[in-house]
């Protein structure tokens, strides 16, 4: 696991309990991973010019890229990347300097850009583009490029947001048990 974690300017990722890090993933710098997080093959996360936080029971799937925006005179805080709890980040997603609430599903190949805010209980369709600074309201499905609010989430979809997270926690526990 140590080869996956790399320091940047003396700052080393902070890893919670029962975390699964695939050996092909890379976590660099100021990154905090909550408990029961899973990071799958070929995920790259660079907390070099700002910080990344991934909340408990969240999962980041294969080939996703996580990055941040540096602090500067126009934007003194820059844009860190904050991912809430029980979040499912689909395959090949790009998250850049955005905030993702709890119980969110980001579909495969979606891109979420600087300053975007995804509230709790949201689904973002595969291949969608969330422009810089866009806010996605809780309780809706969003699709398209640029993303548009499609409709309210159905009760079964709301329940699936938690179920998806639970399924990934169970799967990562199987991977950890296999050693």
TrEMBL record:
InterPro entries in alphabetical order: Hexapep, LbH_gamma_CA-like, Transf_Hexapept/Carb_Anhydrase, Trimer_LpxA-like_sf
Superkingdom, natural source: Bacteria
One Pfam short name: Hexapep
Database matches in PANTHER family: DYNACTIN SUBUNIT P25, PROTEIN YRDA
Name this protein carries in UniProt: Gamma carbonic anhydrase family protein
């Amino acid at each position: 696991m140590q080869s996956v974690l790399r320091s940047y300017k003396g700052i080393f990722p902070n890893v919670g309990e029962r975390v699964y890090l695939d050996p092909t993933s890379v976590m660099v710098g100021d990154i905090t991973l909550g408990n029961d997080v899973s990071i799958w093959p070929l995920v790259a996360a660079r907390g070099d010019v700002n910080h990344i936080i991934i909340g408990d029971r969240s999962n980041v799937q294969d080939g996703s890229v996580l990055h941040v925006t540096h602090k500067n005179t126009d934007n003194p805080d820059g844009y860190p990347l904050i991912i809430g709890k029980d979040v499912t980040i689909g395959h090949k997603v790009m998250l850049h300097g955005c905030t993702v609430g709890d119980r969110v599903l980001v579909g495969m190949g979606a891109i979420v850009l600087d300053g975007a805010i995804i509230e709790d209980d949201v689904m973002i369709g595969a291949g969608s583009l969330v422009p810089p600074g866009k806010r996605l309201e809780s309780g809706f499905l969003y699709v398209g490029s640029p993303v548009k609010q499609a409709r309210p989430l159905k009760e079964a979809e709301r329940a699936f947001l938690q179920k998806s997270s639970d399924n990934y926690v169970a799967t990562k526990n199987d991977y950890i048990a296999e050693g």
